[in-house]
Amino acid sequence: MITMHALQDLEIGFCLPEQIPYFFNHVDAPILSNLRLRGNGDGSGDVLFLNTWPHEQFKDFLSRLHYPLTSLSLIDINLQSSDIQKILTHLPALVSLAVQHTHISYDRHNTLPLYATFNAMAASPHSTAALLPRLTSLSLHGRMKIDFQLLAYMVKSRRRSPHIPLKDLDLVLLKGSSVMDEATKGRLEAACHLTYQRRDSS
Question: Looking at the record's lineage, which domain of life comes first (predicted)?
């Protein structure tokens, strides 16, 4: 076990899928608050493909933290849609989430990637049990299929008291991504600080 007592921010790249569970099993960083996991550890720019996320090892890694993780970035990693949601259930104190250039597979019901996650993040008027209840910043970059109407509903629902609103939404979408209509864009702009870019030449 490698222990880093003073480490608060960490960015680490992986070249092989088996390196991710190895990292979770062998690193102890008790005051870590900001974690960036990058799949192109060899600098190739290729996405790292995982058959499944190492959930048990991830849970054990989180259990060794003295304080909950508040910021997570997943970059250049292929994930199942269901894995994303399960990862986030372990992070109730997360304030900032970034998913960048990460291929997210359709779930077993063939719904859009992140559909179930956005649905779980929507806040009920009479409940505080929404997924990621403290999240204030969400960044999605890459080629993504997104249900923008559901995304707008989720963001708006979290503005109701006693929920913590999602204040910043950063979308940078590449060619082949879903296209947001102007009405939905207007709803999002009314509910949060929206940055929306399309890079159709990429």
Answer: Eukaryota
Domains of the chain: which residue ranges? 2-199
- Predicted TM-score (pTM) of this structure: 0.91
**Region of residue 142 (left: phi > 0; alpha: psi -120 to 50; beta: else):** left
HSE-CB for 135 with a 13 A CA cutoff: 29
Quick one: pLDDT band at residue 199, thresholds 50, 70, 90? confident
Report the amino acid identity of residue 182: E
Q: Which residues contact 71 (CB under 8 A, 6 or more apart)?
A: 33, 34, 35, 94, 95, 96, 97
> Domain 2-199, CATH 3.60.20.10 — does that match?
no
